[in-house]
C-alpha cells in the first residue's frame, strides 16, 4: 500500500513537471513567433522606406506640379502653389501602389549574436553583382515581407504620405520606430541596415 501511495505521488509530480515543461515551451515559442513577426514588420517598413526614397530620387527634382484649389477666390486670386513632383501626394500614392512588389528583391539575414532577422536587398538596381553569402533566399520570406508591406501601406498610408511629402532626414527611424512602433530595436541599428 505504501508503495502505491509513493508511486501516485511520483506520478503527480511527474505530470506537473510535464505540464510545466509543455507550458514553458509554448510560452517560449509564442514569444519567438511574436519577435519574428515584429522582425518581418520592421524589415518591411524599413525596406518600404528605402524603396520609396530610391523611387523619389529617380524623379527629376526640377519637375514641379501645381497643387491647391483651382477655384477663384472672391478677390480674383487662386490658392495654387507649386511643389516638387517627386514629393507630391499624387506621385507618392502612385509609388505606394507598387512599392510592395519590390519586396521580392529582398532576402533574410540572421544576426548570429542576437538571432534577430533583418532584410537586405538581394537584387541590385544597377545590375551589379552582389554578395549574397549571408542572405537567405526563400519565397516564404519574400511573401511574408510583401504581405507585411501591404499591411503597413494600408494601415499607415497617411503617415507615409506625410513623412515623404515633408521629411527627408532619418525617415526610417521616424516612421518605423517613433510614429508607427513597428520597430522596437531600430534605433540601435545602423542606418543602412534593414
TrEMBL record:
Which keywords belong to this entry? Signal
Statement: the UniProt record of this protein carries the keyword ATP-binding: no
Tree of life domain:
Eukaryota
Naming one, the record's GO cellular component terms include: endoplasmic reticulum
Stored InterPro entries:
CNPY (IPR042415), DUF3456 (IPR021852)
- The residues forming the signal peptide are 1-33
Pfam families in the record, alphabetically? DUF3456
Q: Which parts of the sequence belong to the DUF3456 domain? A: 41-183
**Similarity comment:** Belongs to the canopy family.
Q: What is this protein called?
A: Canopy FGF signaling regulator 2
Organism for this UniProt entry: Acanthochromis polyacanthus
Amino acid at each position: 500500500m505504501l508503495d502505491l501511495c509513493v508511486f501516485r505521488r511520483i506520478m503527480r509530480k511527474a505530470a506537473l513537471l510535464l505540464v510545466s515543461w509543455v507550458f514553458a515551451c509554448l510560452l517560449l515559442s509564442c514569444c519567438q513567433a511574436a519577435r519574428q513577426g515584429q522582425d518581418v514588420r520592421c524589415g518591411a517598413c524599413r525596406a518600404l522606406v528605402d524603396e520609396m526614397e530610391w523611387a523619389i530620387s529617380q524623379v527629376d527634382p526640377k519637375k514641379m506640379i501645381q497643387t491647391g484649389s483651382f477655384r477663384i477666390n472672391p478677390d480674383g486670386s487662386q490658392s495654387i502653389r507649386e511643389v516638387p513632383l517627386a514629393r507630391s501626394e499624387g506621385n507618392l500614392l502612385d509609388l505606394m501602389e507598387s512599392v510592395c512588389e519590390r519586396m521580392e528583391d529582398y532576402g533574410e539575414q540572421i544576426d548570429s549574436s542576437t538571432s534577430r532577422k533583418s532584410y537586405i536587398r538581394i537584387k541590385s538596381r544597377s545590375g551589379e553583382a552582389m554578395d549574397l553569402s549571408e542572405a537567405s533566399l526563400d519565397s516564404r520570406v519574400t511573401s511574408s515581407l510583401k504581405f507585411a508591406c501591404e499591411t503597413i501601406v494600408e494601415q499607415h498610408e497617411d503617415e507615409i504620405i506625410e513623412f515623404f511629402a515633408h521629411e527627408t532626414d532619418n525617415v526610417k527611424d521616424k516612421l518605423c520606430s517613433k510614429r508607427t512602433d513597428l520597430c522596437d530595436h531600430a534605433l540601435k541599428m545602423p542606418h543602412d541596415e534593414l
